[in-house]
Amino acid sequence: xxxxxxxxxxxxxxxxxxxxxxxxxxxxxxxxxxxxxxxxxxxxxxxxxxxxxxxxxxxxxxxxxxxxxxxxxxxxxxxxxxxxxxxxxxxxxxxxxxxxxxxxxxxxxxxxxxxxxxxxxxxxxxxxxxxxxxxxxxxxxxxxxxxxxxxxxxxxxxxxxxxxxxxxxxxxxxxxxxxxxxxxxxxxxxxxxxxxxxxxxxxxxxxxxxxxxxxxxxxxxxxxxxxxxxxxxxxxxxxxxxxxxxxxxxxxxxxxxxxxxxxxxxxxx
Length: 269
Hints:
Structural class: mainly alpha
Order of helices and strands: HHHHHHHHHHH
Strand content: under 5%
């Protein structure tokens, strides 16, 4: 007589199935590659060319072009766009009845959250890794060490952004409302993270917003990793220990909030 899988086994299988479903959906909807990968690259090329002449890095940093400065910000933008497109599936799954079936299945809410977030995180990191070799065009000296350190950092940042998108999508019923909130919330979050322009010399109010923005520390950590052999280029950024601490705490907070959102609507423990 066969034994039924344990609760932990069911949770792991459920999370794996949901993550695999996100990957399969992406393969079948290849137009999402344009929105999540090609569009940020176009932004990088256009803004890099257009703003290069007027860009002035901080006085303590070595001279760099805007194309080079914007390169880490573009990587984070790829993660952000992937998080937006991936978490739309939460609304689509609810409208199609799939989400109700998952909630009724004998798996805990944590498996649902981990599965959705893990699948989207894998997609985001995979696309960001495809863009990383473009560093040589930007003028960033990408080493094997910086590449190896960047990948897990990108995974944590992507997990955080996907968790935030999941929380927002879980409370909405329309993709139109989701896009409106994302454009009004996540894009400014990215803009005010040091990804698009340096934080030095901005008005005091903006400086406080940038300092309180958790994504600021994700961008800072990524810049420090990409310039691991040239600390003078990132001397005006938050230190690595603080940046990593904020990034990890933000990821944990987003997961906890996503889990509570599912539990509040009838999910299992």
